[in-house]
Amino acid sequence: MAGATPIDLLVVTVDRRLLDQLIQLLVAPRSHGLKLLSCVQTWSTIGQQRTIVKHVRIRAAGNQPCWRAQVSRGIDTHVDMPQTEDSFGQATRAAVLGGTTTLIDFVPPMAPGQRLVEAVENRIAAINASAVIDVGVHPMLNRADDQVLTDIKTVIDLGCTSFKMFTTYPENLVTDGDAWRLMRAISDHGGLPGFHAENHTILGEAQRELVDQGRTGIADFAASRPALAETTAINTLCLLAKELGSPIWIFHVSGAAALRAVTDARAIGVEAYAETCTHYLTFDDTVFTGPEPWRYVLSPPIRSRADQAMLWDGVANGTVQAVGSDHNAYSLTTKRPTATDFRELPLGAPGVQIRTPMLWHQAVNVHGLSVGTFTEISAERAARALGMFPRKGAIRVGSDADLVLIDPTASWQGTDLEPSVDNSFDPYADEHGRGRPRHVLSRGHQIVRDGEFFAPQGGDRFLPRSPRS
Ligand SMILES: [Zn+2]
């Protein structure tokens, strides 16, 4: 049959115009009388210049099977929209302009008397109404009554397979006994229990000591939430996981001690996952004595430079599975920048827009990690752990064609990235980096062209995920 022999193209470019031509080939192969069979991109250094290398396999149109490009990159595992002031439309637009193609949001804690199923269905409806990229959810659990235990199976069947529980914040915390009960129900049905792990009473004691000494300024914020609170919570929860034979996901691992607690649990046979966040990989605790320190008040706190180095080791050697933004898009009015007492500041900061460019810059340019390690930490490990693989996080036949083309030579400043809410603040405003997303395809449709939001793809964007087998 005419055209049956595939044609291989190798495109090596630092030229954005060539990238544009290539994207045309990707999104409209039929207009060229060609069918796209596969597309794999890598990067290499030629001379002094980092260069994009794309291997495209095409075939003349005929009766041959037509495969789309399968490239999945950019999964943000931690977007805290229940706490914040942006919509799914705004947050997902900011995310995709920054090269994030999938994010996992949360179902807000249940209101008194509200059923878990109702809370989850409301969240799915809100996502489908306005999100422009695929969004999954971790339901937050703040009760362990029989109704919740019954609903856990139902929401896992709906595709919400990972959960978040809190060991602090009095309005939502679960006791160790509740955690045990909920973990059993979740793991029995193939779900993944996850935790905000800071021991509430140790936080209370640390803060009492500081208050007694009159140390309530932002410079003392990190001391008010010591690593000891994280490690004691992680140790206890991992012992429960071991007893139950349950997997466990630890959200926002902030430093060396918490990561060691997770790896210690693995050493005794616990299937324990560690998520860290962009801010722990970017900043250290000197921000609390620098300009506008209120911008960095979030929890668990940003820790020392040595902690940050240990997290990068974990990214490089595979002990860290995911990097979330822990995006909390407060307006300036809510964040209260004039507050000088750390107890008056709401915890959290925005960051969904900068996660991928910052992770690329830090991983590839600063820490010298391979592009392969970047793609693993940016998407693949999280996709595997959170029931999205191989639909997400893989370049395969049958996977979603979520493709991010990064121009590795393009420089950026934090303020170049579009915020998701007006009148907000940006802890990354003064940061610089190199490597900027130029084109983004979501499920095969181009939605960012040359750095501009191009066209929202209609349709439901709630992303159901698979339970563990
Ligand atoms: Zn948390």
TrEMBL record:
Keywords: Hydrolase. It is an enzyme of class 3 (hydrolase). It holds the Pfam family Amidohydro_1. Residues 85-417 form the Amidohydrolase-related domain. InterPro entries: Amidohydro-rel, Metal-dep_hydrolase_composite, Metal_Hydrolase, Metallo-dep_Hydrolases_sf. The keyword Hydrolase applies. One of its GO terms (cellular component) is cytosol. Its EC number is 3.5.2.-. GO terms for molecular function: hydrolase activity, acting on carbon-nitrogen (but not peptide) bonds, in cyclic amides. Belongs to the metallo-dependent hydrolases superfamily. Hydantoinase/dihydropyrimidinase family. This is D-hydantoinase. It comes from Microlunatus phosphovorus (strain ATCC 700054 / DSM 10555 / JCM 9379 / NBRC 101784 / NCIMB 13414 / VKM Ac-1990 / NM-1).
